[in-house]
Amino acid sequence: EDQVTQSPEALRLQEGESSSLNCSYTVSGLRGLFWYRQDPGKGPEFLFTLYSAGEEKEKERLKATLTKKESFLHITAPKPEDSATYLCAVQEGNTDKLIFGTGTRLQVFP
Amino acid sequence: DTAVSQTPKYLVTQMGNDKSIKCEQNLGHDTMYWYKQDSKKFLKIMFSYNNKELIINETVPNRFSPKSPDKAHLNLHINSLELGDSAVYFCASSLGDRAFFYGYTFGSGTRLTVV
After folding, report:
1. Nearest-by-Cβ selection for A34 from B48, B55, B103
2. pLDDT, position A5
3. Do the Cβ atoms of A49 and B100 come within 8 Å?
4. Contacts of A13 (CB under 8 A, 6+ apart)
5. Sign (positive/negative) of CA torsion A34, B40, B78, B12?
6. Model confidence over B44-66: pLDDT tens digits?
7. Distance of CA B83 to the CA centre of its chain
8. Which of A77-86, A94-103, B24-33 is predicted with the least confidence, judged by mean pLDDT?
9. Strand A3-7 to A56-59 pairing
10. How many other CB atoms sit within 10 Å of the CB of residue B90?
């Protein structure tokens, strides 16, 4: 059965303290791996799609990487406005549905 | 100019009632979805429609019935509400296969509380 596991569940960082979030997955025929950001009381907001092992994508202080079994979301010198829940999701090769992990709740303190 | 809008934002109702949640998107997308987010923040797909045609129908009780009058609207009707239906329901839309590049666009959610 397809599965997505994210770690850690929660992460507290000091402003400027870089770190990484992990997303491990098992899926038959990965079509794409997605990263979303979710703020309290809002819907998930699309960040990146990664398609193949070795691929990297960057957006401001965020950088996502992909291997055959996991993806990392690296946050460089985070700011308080980066505080949110970060969700990882995978899409199977022959379906249109996303299978989400339970997210990592990131808090960045000034 | 909200891209994906859901109404209502909050819904508190008694067990056994029937309720509907409405969703509209103005992005020109051809695929729409309903996702349920439980108290542990786990998002799970319920249904998807492509140009008014049901594509995905996960293992969801028959009390949940989606309706898509046109490709810009996808409503969710729930009969005989139960305590376990309490959750946040998200509507989303995408450009089908091009969701790879642009992702899904989610609404801001409807928090349903059954008492």
Report:
1. B103
2. 95
3. yes
4. A19, A75, A78, A106, A107, A108, A109
5. negative
6. 999 999 888 888 888 789 999 99
7. 18
8. A94-103
9. unpaired
10. 27
